Amino acid sequence: MPHDPPASTVLAGLDTIRGRQEDLYRDLHAHPELSHQEHRTASEVAKRLAESGFELHTGVGGTGVVGVLANGAGPTVLLRADMDALPVEETTGLPYASTVTVDGTPVMHACGHDVHVTCLLGAAELLAGATGQWAGTVIALFQPGEEVSDGARRMVDDGLGDLVPRPDVLLGQHVLPMRAGTVGTNPGPTLAAGDSMRITVYGRGAHGSMPLAAMIVVRLQTVVAREVAPGEAAVLTVGSIRAGTKSNIIPDRAEIQLNIRTYDERTRSDVLEAVRRIVDAECRASRSPRDPDVELFDRYPVTDNDAATTRTVAEAFTAYFGDRAGELGRWTASEDFSDLTGAFDGVPYSYWGFGGVDPDTYDRAARQGRVSQDIPANHSSGFAPVLDPTLDTGTEALVVAALAWLAPHDR
């Protein structure tokens, strides 16, 4: 007797959990927590994983939570969601908008991590409720501190590799300013490496620091054009310059903050070296009284999807989503998801995107060529994924991708 595909059977339970997922999402959105402060979120995650029958590991890397559900012999699949929010004041006007502040700083889920948590908890519940459809082991990993680039590394350093079975594949996803209901995959470099740099330069007397800083900023604009090989991509953004307090006082120091995005380790190294070389040379040319201080922080790896793994995910998505599955392409956003490979050397991974923008709103903006102008992107104060069909799509994607590896149940 023929049987329905496992994904369709497992996901038939969506109707029964949709209301709980929406309530959970609203609650998480209204109660965001900054990086490594995700105590309330982690507690809710642990409670729900336990209710679904997962073996729990809490406090991993600080506030990380890992659930393991073993269901007989078969492959092991790790599914990951991040939990932290951002220091952003929400302007969405939603009835469940965040009013949280930490030491006077507004906090908001401006990057969709509340969506990620909700979807992974939903996928975990559905897989746990349909163990007759698959065999193997599911690891549900909820990571802190993605927004400060060190959450995955902290979990690895805290012994993640010794806590759980070695996975056969690592899978993750991100809600993006795409049409809700769609999913997209991309083999190879997909999200950029991110490097933030803080540079302090020094001046004295009439040779103040601000003219020196201005000359450095102008010169830095040549890096991408002159230092990056044709065919490679890089973005260098000077996001902040701070110097002085009064119009008639010449400051003796200036601070420049910049961010660099690249997709290739050689390009990354070349751009960073070029920045240091230009800063040093301009300081010498201006007879700076001391060497500049250069600090690298918030460093993210390239998300370089394994081609074969991503092909498997893409084929599963096409079979389930039909024409709602497509190509993601490269994004200049950065992620620390791939740092989890530090606990499982050699394990392949794939990371995809799914849409969170109301379809009518997105289509209207697309027709007018105004997607980038009219659609609030991640990290925006107006970022607000629609619940329907975003939560369903994110939950479906995790289940479908996991079942592409998990063995069919021996009937």
TrEMBL record:
Keywords: Hydrolase
Entries under PROSITE patterns matching the protein: FAD_PCMH (PS51387)
Enzyme Commission (EC) number: 3.5.1.32
GO molecular function, one term: hippurate hydrolase activity
FAD-binding PCMH-type domain segment(s): 28-223
Superkingdom of this protein's organism: Bacteria
Pfam families: M20_dimer, Peptidase_M20
PANTHER family: METALLOPEPTIDASE, PUTATIVE (AFU_ORTHOLOGUE AFUA_6G09600)-RELATED, PEPTIDASE M20 FAMILY MEMBER
Name this protein carries in UniProt: Hippurate hydrolase
